[in-house]
């Protein structure tokens, strides 16, 4: 094997009684293959696949220690229950079979309910309300603290019985252990004593089991430890554990979106490193070989990732063998990976799927399917948005030698490229870079600035995949409004010099309207009026992203939100706004109007070739995840059909 381009990252590390094969860690997250609080089919396979990707230490998250900390929908592992041990043995065996060290992270949420319904009242060291909750928790009483310590002990015993190599205590993100440690949520000054008791209880189960602890490094006004408090705590905790894992944030901010382009803990490593003698894990937003190298150079012993490994579980092997350019990148969109609907999914990774499915379910529209007429393996993909890009790359990876990708524009990406131009949305550019590199490496024939009309141009092709996307429409465009896609494509100049911009949203609360608002801020627009027939601004974007968006907008301009209103016309006096509740109308003066219009599929042409499939927005405009999944599915079906002459449009 060739030498690693990151020799320190590839170096083994002895940690406690375990030896890690390298310095890359899969930090705590959940698979979603949990029903009624217990693992189900697919859980062990997920963790085995993650281990096969090369990470040395796998920390399984989403694991609670007590009934009052478990959401009633049962999608989080409840390790206080002994019946969890059996199925967890399968999970651990799958990780060990691929050479990984397996650790189980344990959490009691305390006053933080994750916004989920529970059968029980939330508890905390004191009845101090979280700003993320509508009511204050119930304060734990005397002997109940003993019950919390016992809950951690029992759950740890179950984890070790299942074969885990160790335990990680979750004292970050404002959850119960941090609530004990913070003077803002625990006036009794017994927080460290409680933590010591939990650690002693776990150590009493097994002297050789690994024990780690996770902290957030950035203070917040309501609970998180401040820098001086963490600096005082770390030297005291250091001799009690085998490693310290540092991350960022509280519940609504700990999953940073694509506006965070640099791992935030990098700036803290210099002050944290002298405070601990144990191995230090730096976590959050590490997605590239360069940032991994930066963390190790700054003093981290291990680098942790979660979403990056959900997007591409092979990231460790690729990075450590000099193939970092092949990593399918996490774009930090915070969409599917945060919903667990029905399991852990990923927008950019179509290989993650519900139980029983070989890949993410998708159904390209079959326009023609006659494999018997195919004479070879020539495939034309028409349109280089995310569906077309995924289809062309997947065809090439499947061994289809003659793939031609047509794109009428002079750049790849379609609406994905437009979205990448929005402020704080550059994560999509990383995905486009992945496709560009992959197509080049696979020698796919990419023809920019060319359309593929039926007839001689496509004569001799065996299959055509139509990925021609959609167009944005609205009656307001004829009245002088600018489409949101046009504004984003033109960038800041499209709104520069405007004193008042009206954004006419479609009411569904997704990113286009939010992106236009941020574009107006970037253009220096002092006043923005956001008109929406919906009930809220940014109501449908991921919750963590919404919190971060509102923080970015705070104090930047005069932003007025007009909910339950519809922009119905434009005149020299301004925008006519109809109010749903009153039935009346007002005129809002504006010198620039941007409308989030309805997206409609482009008209499809008829191609006289044996196999014709339509994918992505050309079927029905939806999200990037649908486009990528349908592009992959189309590639699988076509590659199978031209080789085996399958009679049906599904492989």
Automatic annotation (TrEMBL):
Domain NADH:flavin oxidoreductase/NADH oxidase N-terminal, residue spans: 11-325
Pfam families (UniProt xref): NAD_binding_8 (PF13450), Oxidored_FMN (PF00724)
Keyword Translocase: no
GO biological process: fatty acid beta-oxidation, unsaturated, even number, reductase/isomerase pathway
Keyword Iron: yes
UniProt keyword annotations, A-Z: Flavoprotein, FMN, Iron, Iron-sulfur, Metal-binding, Oxidoreductase
Cofactor needs: FMN; [4Fe-4S] cluster
InterPro entries (UniProt xref): Aldolase_TIM, FAD/NAD-bd_sf, NADH:flavin_oxidoreductase, OxRdtase_FMN_N
Gene Ontology molecular function: any one: 2,4-dienoyl-CoA reductase (NADPH) activity
Record-stated family: In the N-terminal section; belongs to the NADH:flavin oxidoreductase/NADH oxidase family.
Protein name per its UniProtKB record: Oxidoreductase
Natural source organism: Streptomyces violaceusniger
